[in-house]
Amino acid sequence: MKTRNTLKGIFWIALYVVFSLAPLSLMLFGERPMGREFWREFSVALGFVGIAMTTLQFVLTARIAAIKSPYGSDVVYYFHHHISLVTFALWLAHPLILFIQFPGTRQLLNLITAPWRARAGVTSVIVLIALIVISVWRRQLKIEYVRWRIWHGILATLALILVMVHIYLVGRYVGTPFKQALWLGYGGICVLLVAYVRVINPYLISRRPYEVVEVRPERGAVWSLALRPVGHQGMRFQPGQFAWLTAWNSAFSDREHPFSFSSSAENPEQVEFAIKELGDFTSTIKDLKPGQHVYLDGPYGAFSVDRQAKAQEIVLIAGGIGISPIMSTLRTLAERGDGRPLLLIYGNRTWEEVSFREELELLQEHLDLRVVHVLEKPPKGWEGEVGFVTAEMLDRYLPADRRRVEAVFVCGPPPMMNAVEAALLKLDVPLRAIHMERFDLA
Ligand SMILES: Cc1cc2nc3c(=O)[nH]c(=O)nc-3n(C[C@H](O)[C@H](O)[C@H](O)COP(=O)(O)OP(=O)(O)OC[C@H]3O[C@@H](n4cnc5c(N)ncnc54)[C@H](O)[C@@H]3O)c2cc1C
Question: What does each C-alpha distance from 371 to 275, 374, 411 come to in angstroms?
């Protein structure tokens, strides 16, 4: 399984590089414009690679399970975030090199007098700048996540259309059927992906509704939402994976939110999510009524013990609602009668807020499970761990021989995850053994 995923991962990276660089073949082969200066051609080359990489951004975010499975959704989203800055730099390099090397081209910035090819090119860069600004500073600009997602899609599509118009109107490197086919191919992939994401996938999801069975309160302002498939078999998932939930709206709505399954993967006929009240959407979970229809898109994610079948011992580290995928893991392993030693280190603010603490106690009777609670504000007389999960604390519980630590699953608030990752590495836990699920794709 691991080797197959590694090979798949290498394959997708190789394909990414090939598709990113493919437009350079337009410049290397076939008829070329004569007598053009190096800097002009170089700026075009950078722009072409930037455009190809922009079209690949559509592929990265289209939720194609086969592409995400070797890495995990969060890794793909992080790559998407970071590579978008490289892409932006490449787009920007094209006009900047021209403006510096050929000062006459600066008049193309005047959108009133500039020819249409320049208007399209300059506007595409302005649109891209707007896209980067609302994405990097979304929180500071106080843009609601769902509204941001809609604008993100509109601006990305607009930038790409404008830049394709720019290439077409400039007219170089589109002179032969091969060159035209290549650009049409890139544009066509984006159109197909938008159609898939906006129409085909929502249509398929709408054909497989779920109904609410119950909404149970848990400790720590968490609600367990139980769903049953209506007219279909339900979804097979691995413990630790997640799905996008749409409630109150049609499957075509943009208002969908990711949640990890918290129920056993052995029971696809009734799935559960543990959802913490944090904002606009999560505060409405408690208002869902039995029988009400909702939609699920999934499963996604690589945060699963099923991908580490050979690990002899498993360490689970959760903070707050990060317990949700861990509950799915423990419930699944209990149902399967898995006998491997399990260590759960579970951080919370107070004892009263520890979601699922009673069930965790019961699970210790069915699993070889040791639970270590870590409380920020412990009650009087508390004899357990206090404060945050630190390297010193982990050192007390992890096997002394770190090579025995083959699988550590970490899920919790971002500051905790960063601290725990650093602590694990400090303790010589091999990087390949550390698996993280970040509840923040935005
Ligand atoms: C892979 C994954 C698994 C998750 N599993 C769980 C879980 O099991 N239980 C749980 O309680 N929470 C989980 N979350 C977090 C949950 O998705 C957000 O808390 C929820 O979407 C917040 O929505 P809101 O409108 O209530 O809050 P808001 O205040 O609107 O949003 C709070 C923050 O949540 C993020 N967010 C909001 N909407 C979305 C969205 N549609 N898609 C992605 N991020 C969004 C943004 O960073 C936003 O700033 C998970 C997140 C991810 C990425």
Answer: 22, 10, 15
* Domain extent at residue 369: 305-437
CB 224 near ligand 1, within 6 Å: no
Which is the closest atom of ligand 1 to the Cα of 257?
41
Q: For residue 274, what is the domain's CATH number?
A: 2.40.30.10
**How confident is the model at residue 34, as a pLDDT?**
65
Predicted pLDDT at 329: 98
Q: Residue 209: what pLDDT?
A: 96
Q: Tell me, using a 6 A CB cutoff, whether residue 393 lines ligand 1.
A: no
Q: Residue 77: its pLDDT value, please?
A: 87
**What does DSSP say about strands 408-411 and 385-386: parallel, antiparallel, or unpaired?**
unpaired
In the chain, how many domains are there? 3
Handedness of CA 181, 187, 193, 198 (dihedral sign): negative
Boundary residue ending a domain (190, 205, 220): 205
What's the average pLDDT block by block, 10 residues per block, for the chain (442 residues)?
A: 80 94 78 74 92 93 84 85 94 95 92 94 95 93 89 93 92 80 89 91 94 96 97 94 91 88 96 94 94 94 89 94 98 95 96 96 95 96 93 92 88 94 93 90 65
Does residue 278's CB lie within 6 angstroms of at least one atom of ligand 1?
Answer: yes
Q: How far is the CA of 283 from the centre of ligand 1 (A)?
A: 11
Ligand 1 atom index nearest CA of 303: 1
For ligand 1, whether the C-beta of 77 sits within 6 Å is no
CA distance 281 to 277: 8
Ligand 1 centre to CA of 216 (Å) is 19
Indicate whether residue 302 lines ligand 1 (CB < 6 A): no
Which residues does 171 contact at the CB level (< 8 Å), separation at least 6?
none
